[in-house]
Automatic annotation (TrEMBL), chain A:
One of its GO terms (biological process) is tetrahydrofolate metabolic process. Pfam families: FAD_oxidored, Fer2_4, GCV_T, GCV_T_C, SO_alpha_A3. It comes from the Bacteria. It comes from Paragemmobacter kunshanensis. Residues 598-860 form the GCVT N-terminal domain. One of its GO terms (molecular function) is sarcosine oxidase activity. Belongs to the GcvT family. The keyword tRNA-binding does not apply. Residues 495-579 form the SoxA A3 domain. Keywords: Oxidoreductase. Residues 880-963 form the Aminomethyltransferase C-terminal domain. This is Sarcosine oxidase subunit alpha family protein.
TrEMBL record, chain B:
GO terms for biological process: tetrahydrofolate metabolic process. It comes from the Bacteria. The lineage of its organism: Bacteria, Pseudomonadati, Pseudomonadota, Alphaproteobacteria, Rhodobacterales. GO terms for molecular function: sarcosine oxidase activity. This is Sarcosine oxidase subunit delta.
From TrEMBL, chain C:
Its main location: cytoplasm. This is Sarcosine oxidase subunit beta family protein. Gene3D superfamilies: D-Amino Acid Oxidase, subunit A, domain 2, FAD/NAD(P)-binding domain. It comes from Paragemmobacter kunshanensis. InterPro entries: FAD-dep_OxRdtase (IPR006076), FAD/NAD-bd_sf (IPR036188), SoxB (IPR006278). The keyword Nucleotide-binding applies. GO terms for molecular function: nucleotide binding; sarcosine oxidase activity. SUPFAM superfamilies: FAD-linked reductases, C-terminal domain, FAD/NAD(P)-binding domain. The keyword Oxidoreductase applies.
TrEMBL record, chain D:
It comes from Paragemmobacter kunshanensis. It comes from the Bacteria. Gene3D superfamilies: Heterotetrameric sarcosine oxidase, Probable tRNA modification gtpase trme, domain 1. Pfam families: GCV_T. This is Sarcosine oxidase subunit gamma. Residues 90-172 form the GCVT N-terminal domain.
Length: 971, 90, 416, 183
């Protein structure tokens, strides 16, 4: 029911929305919950386990019951808190976890079966017969459980992540937060004030409070006006700080576009990383429910929520209201309602000595023994100091006192402290470095106390920042003591008293866990699932702890508490993963030849972050293999051109450059003549092969190292480590020039002819030689190296000319009967030649395994040498690189067996790493690691690939299949 | 977590690559006994408390850093460049 | 008391008043035949199998907190036998067989759910590596099926097959892989061990290990000294500290692994899915929460909590792989402390001290190993000899170079 | 002998403007990395003196006329817009980086906010004043950022990733523009 003239909503902006298909009206500024209550909708959901009818309990993000599904198609969003979601025109909300309808839910039967579904029942049954678990029991449980549904469609909406830095982060904008922000801001500090709700002010805008004799709302507006005008203040509404992380870093979720319909590029949410020099936690407190039989009916709400709906939204949730509380403060609920003209049937106070002076009946020593109303509260039955009674009410406001919102102070393993006087946990001092709690979240519940602590917290932060605090008078406000007597459940009654509304955990469940010796608070939590629901125990932890303490005969501090973990509120994966969608997950690296390759129809495939052409199809070719075979033959017969720019290139200079290479390579580079290139093998310090590649000596003190594409970054880091850790004083510097040069392989019998036409004059370059050349005015480098086994070159040119040179080389190759070749042919060519890649150098390979143990120089130390000498790193029991030759395809990943042996792990002789069809040899070739393989050339081995259903025999050979003597290479 | 790189200043943890304990700096002589190499490569004090370990500022200046920090609280106590460390490199 | 459906019904009819404690709370005796330090999954299963397989019942499990308070209580609950190196292959295969009979063996429903696990691959090279793995699994007698892109699409239609940064080439499907309810595993073993007479002693922290003449004689605890001729250290997450009490320095570095769970959702992910390029894996619990995780935070830590860069990385990986989960909301994140060994494989071995045994180095694969780890550790403690399926999990393999490095990343603890 | 045509990293990407903020590829100038050998600071500065430059402190730069010397990491600076003095070669390693980097200019009222999406740095003017430079990530890419004016930045990324950097900054601007329309 909406009251005229009350609330802070914008009555000039009516909003139309639907819930379960019915159309309702609210106003801008309404939450879905306030708008539904205004329309007298009380039943909004079904509970998790027993499917009990549930209404709205709270007015905030801690809501355990009122979770709905909104929007449709790929916008469908489950588990939206009606108490947080603001209404906008066209918003379509649906109840969830019910079938066929909210009012009639078949699984409501679970409620009747509840004696058999007590805490942990599933651990004790469903064990037999064994296959029934996956086939019957588990699917039933899964279907019954869960709350809302994902659409199964890709979330195509916009999300974002951002960074913010400040001197002081203030979390929460109630009296403590506003006072802290104002104090810090006036001192000139950069301040971020983050508020979860759409409107700043906290209880000052949700309660009927007065500040300096004025309505609290007015003081809030005045303060905000000042803050807005300051350039050093950033006000962030709809922003929940979700986590406290190390060194002043906080995560925060901003609901950017959730209060209006989707719009292009408008993020739904933004996940902030806020780095603060100091922070003030002014997050307030959460009111506690009370446990009594059937305390979960729609219409039973927190007293503070009733006040929030009244003052912020001008809504009263019922027509005849009662209040039950264990403290003085909650009585404001009844008074405010009566002042607004709403009928308050009674105040029930659980305390025997409470005041009875109110404008409505007051019952002391009151305990609710039962409630009625299938889909919404109709009456309560209670006993009290003078007897017992039943009251016809449609709404019951309850207050069990307050729990400080100290969650963030636990995120760095801080353990809260129990304060008996307020029967609540408060933050441990300095639980989060450089964070000061203030106000209600610190256990200080009066408005004046909040102002005071907010200011003190700001002063503390300013002092730590070396700033002086401004002289700022504290506003005058109520300073009443918080009078409360702990009360947790109705003793000595039958019926289920709910603790955890969201997970359907009752006081009986907690007692049963104690009875079964799950007495640790963590055991109780895990056994009953109390505190593991969407509200993460915000409403139930302390109550459950009290019941457990009682059941085990311990005090609450001795019983302990469970740990709050981030995020403070459930946070969408899309927000924290913003930017990761699609290609955004990792940078894309493009070759200069990229467009030229695409122009020729080459499929581009991922090679690390790079895209490289797989093959260059010709008209008439229908499979990749046809193109690959043609490209392979082309290169062996005439000439091929490939972009090899992805290889890592590291420029190494200095008087100690050669010495440095001797340290990082197994073989010796100090003896390499200028103008020559040498293959090098690099080990990790643990003796396994890290990478291989060629290094060229460009000058006496100048080398150019080449790494594999995959290991480029790894090698750079490795070189930096070896240098900075072991020889920082050496005269050596290295710089990545991978991006500075485009590099193309030109290989095949006609490679020299091609380059001669390009260069005019072909330098007389021996195999493994390097020379500077010029192309017109452009300087370039020519290497005579080959990864194909053919007479081959690589030509490097400044990257800006890469595309032009690639197109030019390809055109020249085509004149000679050649053309471009892609990754597939490149792979065939290198297998034919027995060259290894990271399929072979997979991190478990030693120099011995690949037959290169002689490349580990005996004359000098190198990284990895000592560890490579361990007994397990060499010897006949290891798998050694061999070639395999067969008449039908083999599969990489196949395992090898001696013919006649049974196929089993115990008889396993090795595995295949790379395979190809070789058009050159018209055979199927493979590289493989075979137990003691070098001694087994000529043997027949069985190749078994269960997964690809291949089981054939192959001949074990030397890994070099083509031009073993290197005649072509050196021609 | 934030590390203060001696060159770049205070930076988010995501800019750094962790390697392991300080042990990796104490490379044994090539002819040291196998036990020395086993200790160097594998065995660790692994304290629950203050430790010194190696980080690489790979998204920043490329410095290797020797970080003194607490493994229980994540408090960073000191950061120095490996190349410039006291005692120096070879 | 024996659990059964009938018992649940009869107890329900009588107000659930008859349920007995799942285990006793005994005071520590002055001496036991054997002591297991650590009441986590591995320690409890070790005790269970010592009692069940070897008849050793005069034994105690000493736990400094509550039973199951270590990584058994905070993991992503995945059970699989998909290793490829000899040493690991037979061990996890053995563990899988134990899982498959666990409920009936323990008379406790640990909700072991063989819903199938799919490892996605994103390049030809990755496919070949997974084929090698799959063939190893089959050679060991386990199960593996190679799925092509369309095969994956049929099983997991909700993945992004069009826009994702690293296209899905296919997957290795391990039908017997799945999940189990982690706490229930701890409780089931605890109850099973207790029923066989094992003393489970909670809130009892070991503060010293007594060694005389190269032999272990007992332990010092916060509840007094306890004698025993055999002591097993089964304290993943604290292995280095406990071993230090015996003067040992282990090849272990402790790291944080974060994991995440969302709010409950109706069934949407029916398998365990693992994303090869993004270090992301996910399943859906029976309660409906999406349970997922990724890489380590990568720095040594005992803080049991992570930092944002890995949180964001994991979420970004989820968004590129299966953007349908975007609107699922993360409810809780947590961090477990992982014993990271230099080759990513565990250690179950004697030590140089007579009677002192160690079971550690589970990296982040300890949950699925719980049955076999306890089985083999019990065998080792009872007989003094390694069980054949754990024979390669030696302490000295690093010194000798007999490395079991599935990842191939080498002697860097955080890379496994 | 071919007449090779040079192509910039972002050829084909016209400058774009969102809510008054402009993103554009900057014209290439010669870039040479200078990495002094240990103990050669004085000689390096002497060799740089004729250009009116000195080796910059971390996160800084030295500028004279059109020549700039930009700190670019440990023991390294980039000389931009000038020929390298020959005398440097004895005291520092020198490599041509002209082609290795793409340079993007971002200027306008949203420039700082746009960068504080992908860049985890405190770019507030007081913390990152005009002339300040930093090596820092742009999302998952290595980058070099320089503040060239109150509302203007220069962003250098590896050439092969220029299109990704462009796309990410474009998206940041589009989002900020949409946000600006919200209130």
């Amino acid at each position: 029911m909406r009251l005229a003239g009350k609330g802070l909503i914008d009555r000039g902006q009516p909003v139309t929305f639907t819930f379960d298909g019915s159309t309702y009206q609210g106003f801008r500024g309404d939450t879905l919950a306030s708008a539904l209550l205004a329309n007298d909708v009380r039943l909004v959901g079904r509970s998790f386990k027993y499917h009990r009818p549930r209404g709205i309990l709270t007015a905030g993000s801690e809501e355990p019951n009122a979770m709905v599904e909104i929007l449709e198609g790929n916008q469908q969003t489950p588990n939206v808190r009606a108490t947080v979601q603001e209404v906008f025109d066209g918003l379509a909300a649906r109840s969830q976890n019910r079938f066929p309808s909210l009012k009639f839910d078949l699984l409501g039967i679970n409620d009747r079966l509840s004696p058999f579904l007590s805490a942990g029942f599933y651990y004790k049954t469903f064990m037999w017969p064994r296959p029934f678990w996956e086939k019957l029991y588990e699917p039933l449980i899964r279907r019954a459980a869960g709350l809302g549904s994902l659409s199964r469609q890709h979330d195509e909406a916009q999300y974002e992540k951002a960074w913010a830095f400040c001197d002081v982060l203030v979390i929460g904008s109630g009296p403590a937060g506003l006072m802290a922000a104002l104090t810090a801001a006036r001192a000139g500090a950069d301040v971020i004030l983050a508020e979860e709700e759409a409107r700043m002010g906290g209880r000052l805008v949700s309660d009927n409070l007065r500040v300096d004799g004025q309505p609290g709302v007015d003081w809030v507006e005045g303060t905000l006006a000042e803050l807005r005008a300051l350039p050093n203040v950033r006000l962030m509404t709809r922003t929940t700080v979700t986590g406290a992380y190390d060194d002043g870093t906080f995560g925060a979720l901003e609901r950017v576009g959730l209060h209006c319909g989707p719009a292009p590029h408008l993020p739904r949410e933004c996940f902030w990383r806020i780095v603060a020099g100091q922070s003030v936690l002014a997050a307030g407190a959460l009111e506690r429910p009370l446990a009594f039989p059937d305390n979960d009916r729609p219409g039973i709400m927190l007293a503070s929520a009733v006040r929030s709906y009244l003052h912020r939204y001008g809504v009263v949730p019922g027509h005849r209201i009662a209040l039950i509380a264990n403290n003085d403060a909650a009585r404001a609920t009844a008074r405010d309602l009566m002042a607004a003209g709403v009928k308050v049937a009674a105040i029930l106070d659980t305390r025997p000595d409470a005041s009875v002076v109110e404008d409505c009946p007051v019952y002391v020593n009151a305990q609710i023994t039962g409630t009625a109303g299938r889909l919404g509260l109709t009456s309560i039955t209670f006993r009290h100091a003078g007897g017992s009674a039943t009251l016809e009410v449609d709404t019951l406001a309850m207050s069990g006192g307050w729990n400080p919102t100290l969650h963030l102070t636990c995120h760095m393993n801080g353990r809260p402290l129990w304060r008996e006087d307020i029967a609540a946990f408060v933050p441990a001092p300095d639980a989060v470095p450089r964070l000061t709690p203030a106000g209600a979240c610190n256990g200080t519940f009066s408005t004046a106390g909040a102002f005071r602590e907010g200011q003190d917290a700001a002063r503390r932060a300013l002092a730590a920042l070396g700033r002086s605090a401004p002289d700022l008078a504290l506003p005058q406000a109520e300073d009443a003591p918080y009078a409360l007597a702990a009360y947790w459940e109705t003793p000595g009654v039958e019926g289920r008293q709910w603790l955890d509304f969201a997970n359907d955990v009752t006081t009986k469940d907690v007692k049963l866990s104690a009875q079964e010796n799950f007495r640790s608070v963590e055991h109780m939590k895990r056994y009953t699932t109390q505190g593991m629901a969407p509200d993460q125990g915000k409403n139930s932890n302390v109550g459950a702890l009290a019941v457990l303490a009682d059941a085990t005969g311990r005090g609450i501090p001795q019983t302990g508490t469970t740990t709050f973990r981030p995020p403070y509120v459930p946070t969408s994966i899309a927000a924290m993963g913003a930017g990761g969608r699609g290609a955004g997950f990792a940078p894309q690296r493009f070759l200069t030849s990229d467009q030229a390759s695409r122009d020729r129809g080459a499929p581009m495939i991922e090679a690390g972050l790079w895209y490289r052409p797989s093959y260059f199809p010709k008209p008439g070719e229908t499979t990749w293999l046809e193109a690959c075979n043609r490209e392979t033959r082309m290169l062996r017969d005439s000439v091929g051109v490939a972009d090899v720019s992805t290889l890592g290139k590291i420029d190494i200079q200095g008087r100690d450059a050669a010495r440095f290479l001797d340290l990082v390579y197994t073989n010796t580079f100090s003896t390499l003549p200028v103008g020559r290139v040498r293959y090098g093998l690099m080990l990790r310090e643990d003796g396994h092969v890290l990478d291989d590649g060629t290094s060229a000596r460009l000058g006496e003190h100048h080398f150019l190292m080449t790494t594999t594409t995959a290991a480029a970054g790894l090698v750079m880091r490795h070189l930096d480590f070896v240098h900075q850790a072991f020889c920082a004083g050496w005269d050596v510097r290295f710089t990545s020039v991978t991006e500075s040069w485009a590099q193309f392989a030109v290989a095949g019998p006609k490679a020299r002819d091609l380059l001669a036409t390009l260069l005019g004059e072909m330098p007389d370059l021996p195999f493994m030689g390097v020379a500077d050349v010029t192309l017109g005015k452009v300087r370039a480098r020519l290497f005579r190296i080959s990864f194909s086994g053919e007479h081959g070159y690589e030509i490097a040119i400044p990257t800006r000319f890469g595309e032009a040179l690639f197109r030019d080389l390809v055109a020249r190759a085509e004149i000679l009967g050649g053309g471009p070749y892609g990754m597939e042919a490149l792979n065939v060519l290198r297998i034919e030649k027995g060259f290894i890649t990271h399929a072979e150098i997979h991190g478990r390979t030693t120099a011995f395994d690949i037959g290169m143990e002689r490349m580990v120089s005996a004359k000098k130390d190198c990284i990895g040498k000592a560890a490579a000498a361990r007994p397990g790193m060499t010897g006949p029991e290891r798998d050694q690189l061999v070639g395999l030759k067969a008449t039908s395809p083999m599969g990489a990943g196949a395992h090898l067996f001696t013919p006649g042996d049974r196929v089993h792990r115990e008889t396993d002789q090795g595995y295949v790493t790379s395979v190809c069809y070789s058009p050159t040899l018209d055979a199927h070739l493979a590289l493989a690691f075979l137990r003691n393989g070098r001694a087994r050339h000529g043997e027949t081995i069985r190749v078994v690939d269960h997964l690809r259903k291949i089981d054939i025999l192959a001949e074990v050979t030397d890994p070099v299949f083509h031009d073993k003597e290197g005649v072509k290479l050196r021609a | 977590m934030r590390l203060t790189c001696p060159l770049c200043g205070a930076r988010d943890r995501r800019e750094f690559t962790y390697y392991g304990a300080e042990d990796y700096l104490n490379r044994p002589a090539p002819d040291a006994p196998p036990q020395a190499w086993d200790d160097y490569l594998h065995n660790r004090d692994n304290p629950a408390g203050v430790t010194r370990d190696l980080w690489y500022h790979d998204m920043g200046c490329s410095s290797w850093l020797l970080v003194t920090r607490n493994t229980v609280t994540h408090e960073i106590l000191a950061v120095e460049a490996v190349a410039d460390r006291k005692g120096g490199a070879a | 008391m024996r659990y059964s459906g009938l018992r649940v019904i009869t107890e329900g009819l009588f107000g659930n008043k008859g349920w007995k404690p799942a285990w006793r709370d005994p005071a520590p005796k002055a001496e036991y035949d054997a002591i297991i330090i650590g009441g986590g999954g591995h320690g409890l299963s070790t005790a269970y199998y010592l009692a069940k397989n070897h008849g050793m019942t005069n034994i105690a499990v000493l736990e400094k907190g509550y039973l199951g308070s270590g990584n058994i209580g905070r993991n992503t609950t995945i059970v699989r036998a998909n290793y490829f190196l000899p040493g690991n292959s037979e061990f996890y295969s053995h563990s899988m067989k134990l899982w498959e009979g666990l409920e009936l063996d323990l008379n406790y429903n640990v909700m072991h759910s063989q819903r199938g696990l799919i490892n996605l691959f994103h390049s030809d090279g990755q496919r070949d590596a997974f084929v090698r793995r799959g063939n190893s699994m089959i050679n060991q007698g386990d199960d593996a099926i190679l799925l092509d892109r369309e095969g994956v699409r049929e099983m997991l239609p909700y993945l992004d097959f069009e826009q994702t940064r690293f296209p899905i080439y296919g997957g290795l499907y391990h039908p017997r892989g799945g999940t189990a309810r982690h706490d229930a595993v701890a409780w089931g073993y605890a109850r099973g061990a207790d029923r066989r007479g094992v003393d489970l002693i909670q809130n009892c922290e070991v503060t010293g290990i007594d060694i005389e003449g190269g032999r272990v004689t007992g332990v010092q605890t916060t509840r007094g000294a306890i004698k025993a001729k055999k002591v097993g250290m089964v304290v993943a997450g604290r292995s280095s500290q406990v071993a230090a009490m015996a003067g040992m320095r282990l090849p272990i570095e402790s790291h944080i692994l974060q994991a995440f769970v969302t709010e409950g959702l109706k069934p949407v992910i029916d398998h365990v899915v693992s994303f090869g390029m993004g270090h992301f894996y996910i399943s859906q619990s029976d309660k409906g929460g999406l349970v997922f995780g990724g890489d380590l935070d990568f720095y040594a830590s005992y803080a049991s909590r992570g930092n944002l860069p890995m949180v964001e990385h994991v979420m970004e990986a989820g968004m590129t792989l299966m953007p349908m989960i975007g609107r699922a909301k993360v409810l809780r994140s947590w961090g477990g402390i992982m014993d990271m060994s230099p080759d990513g494989s565990p250690i179950i071995d004697k030590t140089h001290i007579d009677g002192l045994f160690v079971d550690c180095g589970w990296n982040y694969g300890g949950f699925k190993a719980v049955p076999a780890s306890g089985f083999c550790m019990a065998h080792l403690m009872a007989t003094g000899e390694s069980h054949p399926v754990a024979a390669r999990f030696t302490l000295n393999r690093f010194a000798t170079g007999h490395i079991l490095d599935e990842e191939g990343t080498g002697s860097q603890h955080n890379l496994h | 002998m071919p007449d090779l045509i040079a192509k910039s990293a972002l050829a084909g990407h016209a400058p774009l403007v969102r809510a008054g903020t402009r993103l554009a590829e900057c014209a290439a100038a010669p870039i040479t990395s200078i990495a002094p050998y240990p103990g050669r600071a004085a000689q390096v500065d002497a060799a740089l003196a004729p250009l009116g430059l000195s080796f910059p402190a971390p996160n800084g730069q030295s500028a004279s006329g059109t020549a700039r010397l930009l700190w670019a990491g440990r023991d390294m600076a980039f000389l931009i817009g000038a020929e390298t003095p020959a005398a440097l070669a004895d005291h520092a390693s020198l490599t041509d980086q002209t082609d290795g980097w793409a340079i993007l200019g971002l200027s306008g009222p949203l420039a700082e906010a746009a960068l504080m999406r992908p860049v985890p740095l405190d770019l507030r003017l007081a913390a990152f004043p005009v002339g300040r430079t930093a090596r820092a990530p742009l999302n998952h890419m290595q980058a070099i950022l320089t503040r060239t004016d109150d509302q203007a930045f220069e962003v250098m990324v590896f050439r092969s990733m220029a299109r990704t950097a462009w796309a990410e900054l474009t998206e940041a601007l589009a989002v900020l523009e949409a946000r600006a329309k919200l209130s």
